[in-house]
Write a structure and sequence with these properties.
The chain has 308 residues and is mostly helical. Helix content is 53%, strand content 1%. The N and C termini lie far apart (60 Å).
Length: 308
């Protein structure tokens, strides 16, 4: 049996026994009330807690509690219903962002396949000479083969049923079933060549490292959205690089915090305005923001007069 500790990427703390026990919904409500959270309708609140876990909602109550105190008291008057409003706001934000990322992901696939296949042929993704790091290439292409093997898409099944060589489908089939995370990894490992330049120029950028950082950050956000994680005031670990020289005007106000959501939303807006000129992403954000009283624009990284 493998040692679980071998999988840890952090220092093991001194021995401390976890002793917290599960509590039922009435006790959850009593505990929140003892900490200072107000309730307008406890029956309705119990219904919410039966469908949205107490622990999941903790991510939304946390900013409004004094977490230096072992009892985690609420600061000021906050209602449970306010927390639900914030939870719903965050869900709507994730849906809006996820929809926008879909467009960016499809555009990345299309441009990558188009520009490279015209020069390097149908199986460009298997051409190891195009990549900077061979070890990364071997791992990434192996992951692509795994995703292709798992695929239930008709066009993948058709290729395997009809062709024996090359063993795996052409780029316009194989990369269609690749995750955005894998696409981002493949792109970042590609050497800077005329075809790569065409891809990042198509996204309005003059530096491939900028697009690579944007894709990394967008993939990070996509994973948060896909796993229904908290997004609104998240501190992002994948930080997008701000372009010094873009094809089109980027941001007038550069005094922003790059690890907050506003920075990546700005990068997404820039790309969307190129690939989908009539998109409603920016207007959707403007419409959504005023719908929740607990939303702190500063916590999201939005500067003053951002929408002007």
């Amino acid at each position: 049996m493998r040692n679980r500790a071998s999988f840890r990427f952090y220092e093991t703390p001194p021995f401390m026994q976890f002793s917290k026990q599960p509590i039922d919904i009435p006790t959850q409500i009593s505990l929140l009330k003892a900490r200072g959270l107000a309730f307008k309708d406890e029956i309705k609140s119990a219904h919410y807690l039966s469908n949205i876990s107490y622990y999941r909602l903790r991510a939304y109550t946390y900013p409004f509690q004094d977490n230096t105190d072992v009892n985690h008291p609420f600061k000021g008057t906050i209602h449970f219903e306010n927390i639900i409003d914030l939870y719903v706001f965050d869900r709507k934000l994730r849906i809006l962002v996820f929809d926008a990322i879909e467009k960016i992901e499809i555009a990345l696939r299309t441009k990558l396949i188009y520009h490279y296949s015209l020069t390097y042929g149908s199986h460009l993704h298997e051409n190891s000479t195009l990549y900077l790091n061979n070890s990364r290439f071997i791992k990434d292409i192996g992951d692509l083969y795994k995703e292709t093997d798992r695929s239930t898409e008709t066009f993948i099944k058709h290729y395997f049923a009809k062709y024996t060589n090359p063993p795996y489908p052409a780029s316009w089939m194989a990369l269609e079933v690749a995750s955005m995370g894998l696409l981002s990894k493949l792109f970042s490992n590609l050497r800077n060549c005329p075809e790569k330049k065409k891809v990042y120029y198509d996204f309005g950028l003059k530096n491939y490292t900028v697009l690579e950082s944007w894709l990394h950050s967008i993939c990070h956000i996509r994973n948060i959205c896909a796993h229904h994680g908290r997004l609104w005031n998240r501190r992002l670990t994948a930080i997008p690089q701000m372009p010094n020289n873009s094809v089109y005007p980027f941001l007038i106000n550069r005094q922003i915090n790059p690890n907050k959501i506003y920075a990546t939303l700005s990068c997404m807006t820039y790309i969307l305005n190129i690939i989908s000129p009539h998109n409603n992403f920016n207007s959707g954000i403007k419409t959504l923001l005023p719908t929740c009283d607990l939303v702190n624009m500063k916590e999201m990284g939005f500067p003053k007069n951002w929408g002007k």
